[in-house]
Amino acid sequence: MQFKRTLVTLLGLSTVVLAQAQGTWPTKPVTLVVPFAAGGPTDVVARTLGAAMTRTLGQTVVVENKLGAGGTVAASYVAKAAPDGYTFFIHHNGMATSTALYRKLSYDPLKDFEFVSQAVEVPMTMLARKDFPANNLQEMVSYIKANQAKINLANAGLGAVSQLCGMMFQRAIGVQLTEVPFQGTAPAMNALLGGQVDVLCDQTTQTVPQIKAGNVKLYGVTTRNRVKVLPGTPTLAEQGLKDFEVVVWHGIYAPKGTPKAIVDRMNQAVRTALKDPDVIKRMDDLGAEIVPDATNTPEALHAWLQSEINKWGPVIKAGGKFAD
Ligand code: MLT
């Protein structure tokens, strides 16, 4: 009886505290978890949006990089975090592809999160180290085929889009390369610049400055159409890799149970950030496309994730590379 009364009191108290929290939220810094290394493509999007959201929310958005297992360590961490409105998560296609890549995931991407907002879409670029002995895609493919055993392909682990793109590339040209996983494509890019690895497929949000500085060789973009930020660069598909298309999309999530009022305010904060002139310019300079505001709802992100799980599952299963 005493226990029941205490429980009722506690539940009553927590309802009051929660209601207050929703009314004044946020009263302290908000954490945005990034599943890959600092300085890389996901981190760049998170920090750009975070700076703008800090202005709207009146509290600092702190980016926290939680690395490992192609983004699944961070996803698992956020799925189990307190749903108090102070932990959010930015992730890309990996939220969908991991369901097929991992035999056991400690979370369900569709059920263990609140869906906040979509953010940007980003093309990828097929690159090699600066002194790679091939000057166009045709030469690259011939060289790789002739030297398969000694070519290293960098990526950010199973669940990363660099891994997905690399897998599709190998399949398209019929080779099996040695894959070298990093904890993000920031360290993978460093290895490419240092010549420790040969090939990397990575997002324009990181690669454009390196391409423009002439630090890497570029062989094509992974989108259906050419992209404005790299004029004159052909797509992989138009150079003969039939139907090759990988577009990276970023979404923002919260732990399941985060109050709807907070999720809705965060959705507004992201959408306001996506209209900020600094964000628009930075994303434009890096080739990222902002998702249309009119359709940017939590429900739309949930539906999109479901469609991406349906799309990539069979592609990955056919690829035959899995982790426990
Ligand atoms: C990163 O932020 O490092 C990348 O998004 C990793 C990847 O998925 O390739």
Automatic annotation (TrEMBL):
This protein's UniProt keywords: Signal
Any Pfam family: TctC
UniProt keyword annotation of Repressor present: no
Signal peptide: 1-21
Keyword Signal (UniProt): yes
Source species, domain of life: Bacteria
Family to which the UniProt record says this protein belongs: Belongs to the UPF0065 (bug) family.
Protein's name in the database: Tripartite tricarboxylate transporter substrate binding protein BugD
